[in-house]
């Protein structure tokens, strides 16, 4: 029997669905409410659930002391935190070809293909496909786990949402004309900045915002000219064994917004990666 594990965004953590197939396979769909938990905590719940279903003891109890992420008193943000501010909108309206419907596709990349891609600027290709003018600023949202970046690190069983947003930005012209190291350095420098001092400042910044609903991620956060990347490569996404063995696939149940993509590790641990992302029906690559 094979197991497919599907995660999707829902309005509550009570959304679950089990589907049995004639071939003997089973899929488990679980809704994730990000106001309650991030991917790491959600998988902690699912994997613990599968352990208990097999009669195993609880190995890592949930730690739910939210005071570890409490803002300082008084809050004292030390950085502008542009990652939580709206990115630039399109300088020119999108034409009909750029407003076509999208379809989610999953591409599996072998280790050799990954090495080939590392020699190219993926962001530059995206700018070309979107036909952005050279002076158009584009912003990349990168979901960043703060558990190990905070000092001291959070306990292994911390249950909640510890995802911070990293937001490198550049103009489309620079991304397409400059060497590959330029795009790489924009991303690397932004991620390197995400240390305890920066994350504590981000918590304080969020604490003093008058309307947190204005910061909620949505289509406006990821669609052209912006993008969003969420990596599940370091998450234990294939550890939920309910007695039938490890899942042969785990991935998002859908991607609601153009410009948002997920990077998935291989269930067989062969070094390959899969990329799930929505595509317009017409692309200019």
From TrEMBL:
The UniProt keyword set, sorted, is: Acyltransferase, Signal, Transferase
Instruction: List its EC numbers.
Output: 2.3.1.133
- Give the range the annotation lists for the signal sequence: 1-15
Which InterPro entries has this protein been placed in? Answer: CAT-like_dom_sf, Plant_Fungal_Acyltransferase
Taxonomic superkingdom: Eukaryota
GO MF annotation terms = shikimate O-hydroxycinnamoyltransferase activity
Gene3D superfamilies of this UniProt entry? Chloramphenicol acetyltransferase-like domain
Which family does this protein fall into? Answer: Belongs to the plant acyltransferase family.
Question: What name goes with this protein?
Answer: Putative shikimate O-hydroxycinnamoyltransferase
Provenance organism: Rosa chinensis (China rose)
